[in-house]
Write a structure and sequence with these properties.
CATH superfamily of one domain in chain A: DNA polymerase, Y-family, little finger domain
Helix content of chain A: 25-40%
Largest sheet of chain A: 5 strands, mixed
Number of helices of chain B: 0
Distance between the termini of chain B: 26 Å
CATH class of one domain in chain A: Alpha Beta
CATH topology of one domain in chain A: Dna Ligase, domain 1
Low-confidence stretches of chain A: none
Number of strands of chain A: 13
Strand order of the largest sheet of chain B: 2-8-7-6-5-4-3
CATH architecture of one domain in chain A: 2-Layer Sandwich
Helix content of chain B: under 10%
Radius of gyration of chain A: 25 Å
Structural class of chain A: alpha+beta
Mean pLDDT of chain B: 89
Low-confidence stretches of chain B: none
Oligomer: heterodimer
Structural class of chain B: mainly beta
């Protein structure tokens, strides 16, 4: 298998700033999203030179670099732009996995015949499809490809040849931050004097597991050029979105009505074809500048407008300021509508009855201890065995 | 019907300690450092008082363990919770 990684560094910052050229002029960083924790987002190279890092507290960043320009985040614009990038990659036949904006991976093995029979041909096709400078890396695993992409230059892809463990040996342990499961490992490893992936590879699986648990086991695989989990490409899907302009900046009740209208419009679209909806994205363009975006995954796929409004309405309350445009888009569809329980009949008593029935079935299959619950009897007791007991789930 | 079952029940442990009661090895694992030690005294007004000296230690292979010595009846136990 050969995996190709496409890396667009500082993607969210470049989109929010209106282009990469804007980042060259002065130190810049993505401002914290309104209403969220006061941590800055991606930072420009000039800001990095002042010691500013992504994820740093706003106060500390401004203390390190008083000239720092804060760019209002544009999650809506970033998501749209990234969707276009992914669609371009999918246009060459790639089944793309993307865990965050700016990084995408795909398995190139099945594409070679489409692009001249070589990996170089696939990389060239990728570059042509993207139509923008990007760092490309290729390797035997996702992690190896990520490492190569970080090493690559904008116009020259890096391809890992031969033994992956040997190629990764001299890379810094900081690369483990690229995978969510091992993102917390580099700091303690560096404190312990383990600075390179080769030094991590010298440790046994038992040692890493004993010290770091599942993250250690994942790191053991990664430094040997194996992935801790297989590639999970997204299903290339259609886009279904509805937008409503709000001429007089909307908030509160007005927004709820607008949302209700958008839900009705999305459900009425012919492209839906009777399918239920698994997850949606509600986004807004804010009057004060910038955008806001929230992903809502329903507990079960549904097509009932009342239940949708209820789930989405709670999120719209989090909007940090009045909006001048509201957009609702379908992220994933569910199966064709069948078991659609209406809102009002699905009372708490009904749900409790279903839960009791499920517990009865589980006990019938696996014995009386199949469903237990932890009951805090004396949670503050100084004697640990008095704090909690396991009791039958009634 | 299943009866309630306690979680975090102490389990007997093989501990070698120095003269002052500080654990040196626990179930064959050498103790690297002591993080904390505390005394629990309870039910002293009953016929079955509870007196335990707890030790939270880190072993040389990186495990964080909590053990205690039963001061009334003697014996070492390990415990989670």
């Amino acid at each position: 298998m050969s995996v190709v990684c496409v890396l667009l560094p500082r993607f969210a910052l470049a989109i929010a700033a209106g282009g990469r050229e804007a980042l060259l002029r002065e130190p810049a960083a993505l401002a914290p999203e309104p209403g969220r924790e006061q941590l800055i987002g991606e930072v420009s190279l000039a800001a990095e030179a002042h010691g500013v890092r992504a994820g740093m507290r706003l106060g500390e960043a401004l203390a390190r670099c008083p000239r720092l320009v804060l760019v209002p985040p544009d999650p809506m614009g970033v998501a749209d732009a990234w969707e276009r990038v992914l669609a371009r990659l999918e246009s060459i036949g790639a089944a793309v996995e993307s865990e965050r904006e700016g990084v995408a991976c795909f398995d190139a093995s099945g594409l070679r015949r489409l692009h001249g029979g070589t990996l170089d041909g696939t990389l060239a096709a990728t570059r042509r499809a993207l139509e923008r400078p990007a760092r490309l890396g290729a390797g035997a695993s996702r992690f190896a490809a990520l490492a190569m992409a970080h090493r690559a230059r904008a116009r020259r892809p890096e391809v890992m040849d031969g033994d992956a463990a040997a190629a990764l040996r001299d890379e810094p342990v900081g690369l483990l931050r690229l995978r969510p499961v091992t993102s917390a490992l580099p700091d303690p490893l560096e404190r312990l004097g383990v600075a390179t992936l080769g030094a991590v590879a010298a440790l046994t699986r038992a040692q890493l597991s004993d010290r770091f648990g599942p993250a250690g086991i994942a790191a053991h695989a990664l430094v040997r050029g194996r992935d801790e989990s297989p590639l999970r490409p997204r299903v290339a899907g259609e886009t279904l979105a509805e937008t409503l302009e709000l001429p007089e900046a909307g908030s509160g009740e007005q927004l709820e009505r607008a949302l209700g209208l958008l839900v009705d419009r999305v459900l009425a679209r012919r492209e839906r074809g009777g399918r239920t909806v698994r997850s949606m994205v509600v986004a807004a363009k804010l009057v004060e500048g910038g955008t806001w975006r929230e992903r809502v995954v329903f507990r079960e796929a549904l097509a009932d407008p009342l239940r949708m409004r209820l789930a989405l309405g709670r999120r719209i309350m989090l909007l940090p300021s009045p909006a001048e445009a509201l957009r609702l888009s379908v992220e994933r569809f569910g199966p064709l509508g069948g078991d659609q329980r209406p809102l009002l009949e699905d009372s708490a008593a009904h749900r409790a009855a279903r839960l009791r029935e499920a517990i009865a079935q589980a006990r019938a299959a696996a014995g009386p201890e199949a469903a237990l619950r932890v009951l805090a009897v004396d949670p503050d007791s100084r004697v640990p065995e008095r704090r909690v007991v396991l009791t039958p789930f009634e | 019907m299943t009866r309630p079952r306690r979680l975090g029940v102490p389990r007997r442990a093989r501990v070698r300690a120095d003269g002052r009661g500080r654990p040196l090895t626990i179930d064959g694992r050498t103790v690297d450092s002591v993080r904390e030690s505390w005394l629990v005294e309870d039910r002293w007004w009953t016929d079955r008082p509870l007196r335990r000296r707890y030790w939270e230690v880190v072993t040389v292979d990186g495990l964080d363990l909590v053990v205690f010595r039963e001061l009334e009846s003697g014996g070492w136990f390990s415990q989670r919770g």
